[in-house]
Amino acid sequence: MAFLYKAPLEDPGAELRALLKKEDVIVAPGVYNAAVALLAEKMGFKSVYLSGAALTGSLAMPDLGLITLTELSMFTRYITRVIRIPVIVDADTGFGEAINVERTVRELEDAGAAAIQIEDQILPKKCGHLAGKQLVSPDDMVRKIVAAVEARRKETLIIARTDARGVEGLEKAIERANMYVEAGADIIFPEALESLEEFKEFARRVKAPLLANMTEFGKTPYITVDEFKEAGYKIVIFPVTTFRASMKASKEVLEEIKMRGTQRYILDKLMTRREFYELIGYYEYEHRDKAIDEKARKLLSK
Predict the structure, then answer these.
(1) Interatomic CA distance for residues 229 and 234, integer angstroms
(2) Of 270, 267, 272, nearest to 249 (Cα)?
(3) Are residues 217 and 259 both part of a single domain?
(4) What's 76's domain CATH number?
(5) Given pLDDT bands bounded at 50, 70 and 90, which one contains residue 2?
């Protein structure tokens, strides 16, 4: 049976909760479409992260909260219908105030999200590693977390991201994080910390499962998964890495075609037709189509 027809995870959040107990650290690469998510699963990753920055980037939009809940739910469904590992979904600021967050959680839960991340910026939000961010009050974020926790109907995890480090400093980020834990957040995501020591200090003072963002070209230095694990982090995301790599590779291919008028000399940089067909289960679709045709012919020949 082809990938498209596999039954979805019955309770994706429960799967992620089990992984958190079983694994020392979960590495969740960022994905922005179903093919990349499927590739990550095939390569042995146990969870993926549907990045708002990568998804909006793939739609040629900036990461300013411009995507809609309908679009995010649709892309979440595209991914969860073809992979059987938990998907962590970046829901930006939750698409509104507390009552809007309730609907956000229900919609994304229905779409198969294992965990839903909301952050404490105001709209229009910004990439967490840029200057000029503004925050909602801690009280408003607590209301959103309470709404998210009460809206879920399964074991869906609620991830609370705080962008306070770059606006109010590390102490305020820790204060906010502890408020978010008290409000019921399952996982805390401190955005844009600026050193391994800051990550360690945050972990010492915030008693909850923690998620670290190892993005490129940002305020966080390059820290390895093992270093994050030793610092006390349970999930490490690489949100935009696959998207940036894809864009760079596409640019080089386009330059080659424009310059030489052929792709002949870069075939070694391309995934082959067979490799892609095997990834998406193309031959299983063919077999299914053939089986349907044969059954129909028998019925029609009677």
Answers:
(1) 7
(2) 270
(3) no
(4) 3.20.20.60
(5) very low
